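Q: My collaborator sent me two sequences in one message, no labels, and asked for predicted structures for both. Can we handle them in order? The first one she listed is below.
A: Yes, handling them in the order given. First sequence, followed by its structure tokens:
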Amino acid sequence: MVQEKAIEGMFGHLLWSADILCAAPAMSMQEPYSIWKMTRARGIAVDEAGSISRPDLYRVWGSTMLPCLLGGDDKTTSSSLRRL
């Protein structure tokens, strides 16, 4: 069996080596993702943006001043972002 510390170490290495991370809005506000977002991220991408709420978008984008790409099919779900 693999030790928990070994898995955590590998995950940490992957995190700080990654160019892109995928995370849920709430998860992006927690460590270590929040630190990665503030120090390494070069942009924010939101898939299925038609179904994300404004508060969730603001939670992800926050005060980072990073470019933000919104994507998805606006015909499949109702959107609160279309009113932006």
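Q: And the one she listed second?
A: Here it is, processed independently of the first:
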Amino acid sequence: MELYQTESHYILLDNEFSLWCNRQTGSLEPKRGSDLCSAWNPVCMGLCYGIIGKIKLHPDSSWALLLIKQRSLVGELAEKHKIFQINRIALLPLNTADPVELDLEFCKTHHFGIKKSEQITRPELLQKPLLKTWHTIKSAAENVKPKKKEIKDKEKFERRILDELIKMFNEEESFYYSDKYDLTCSLQQQHSTQYNESLPLFKRCDQRFFWNKYLIQELIDFKCEEIDLADHWIVPIVQGYIQMARCQMDFSENVSPGDSPGDYASSSVEPLKYDIWLLSRRSRHRAGTRSKKRGLDETGACANFVETEQIIEFFPHLVSFVQVRGSIPVYWSQTGIKYRPPPRLDRGSYFPLITNYTLIDSTLVQLIYTYMRTNITLLVVFYPIQNIELDIFFSNVSSQLS
């Protein structure tokens, strides 16, 4: 898709759809692609591959648009659904200041023959060298006055958040998306009676793994007569790990050197090719590092919950196996940074019966409802003194399950 700049808007154009981003208010308005003709003197800034959402780093800051700048193809599931990994993002401030250098890929239509080192700018900005000199002089004069502490703190806070945000997307390589395939739901969920494939992706996806939902909420809430205008721009992004390996089963290896070709029927069978997929989806609820996020919260969300699905694809057949993991479903915590600090129950030494039922309803019953038949394994090391309360609690929970 192409990114255009006008005096009042940044405009994303993707064939029949366009997204108008107001540079003064930061609001997003989806329109038809043909509406680009009504924009005054649009200049193409380059290509991007999607929108993650928008963010405001500080209450006094302007909105900024998160764009997918670079991506790589992980593979094609069922030979038709392309799955991409996000490699780099671009942060585009929605303000009337001169646009920042995004280093986007050039558009072959509008940037034919332009070298990467050349800067794309609007005609009225050709006097930028003179303006730059003036701004340098003006800035030097302003720097004579000491900056207020509030401004310094604000700039420091923005820089810290911005660095962490860019680092999270550009260095961790843990964010994935697909334009057509629902990465948030396992094959089992997608073939259930409750799953409505006719709905847009963001309306039928598993909300637990919809990582950019908050960032794209404005478009989710957008109301207009043509519903599909906003739906086109809302693509759920998952965090986790996805990999595809192409394998081959060669039956000729089963034939001994002294065997004749007619001894085994399998010797004439062509090698079978199949794909193995590994998809790990991390929940956006109660996510955090191991030492800081433990147990449950008031909504029943389990800390560091991950769903891992293994898919074997022998087209057109797909076979799936799902495992989930999460923190112990109790209100508990661990203090300190030493190895294996003793767990501590945060809400008393013994849970009353009604609390046990609430716990089961919010976590274990939800697991069974989502994944149907489930085998539960408890990976807990019990210490004779520190964990006697945990031992009593889990014995009580086990009795409720049985």
